[in-house]
Design goal:
The protein is of the alpha+beta class and 85 residues long. Helix content is 41%, strand content 25%. The chain contains three helices and three strands, in the order βββααα. A hairpin with a 2-residue loop joins strand 2 and strand 3 (24-31). The longest helix has 16 residues, at 69-84. It catalyses: a 2'-deoxyribonucleoside 5'-diphosphate + [thioredoxin]-disulfide + H2O = a ribonucleoside 5'-diphosphate + [thioredoxin]-dithiol. Belongs to the ribonucleoside diphosphate reductase class-2 family.
């Protein structure tokens, strides 16, 4: 299992910590941000394939910022998946 620390850009959350094992996302935690919403995202995506999460979350925009916490998670997962190929 690989543990990842991803520094976010353009969001209230400053960092996402997660683990990935065989393409399955585990133990997701956002550092700061909208606590309730981010806890929900973590609970929903844990145990899911990274590719599926990317397809659902990539491109979500928060308040015209061009990104969001879910989008940043998708970008972090893309980085990991691209390196594995």
């Amino acid at each position: 299992m690989e543990h990842i620390v991803f520094r976010t850009r353009g969001t209230c959350s400053r960092q996402i910590d997660f683990s990935i094992d065989g393409g399955i996302v585990k133990e997701v935690k956002f550092n700061s941000g909208c606590e309730g919403n981010l806890q929900a995202i973590c609970n929903l995506v844990e145990g899911m394939p990274a590719d599926y999460i990317i397809s659902k979350l990539k491109g979500i925009n928060c308040q015209g910022r061009g990104t969001s916490c879910p989008d940043q998670l998708a970008r972090a997962l893309e980085n990991v998946v691209e390196k594995a190929v």
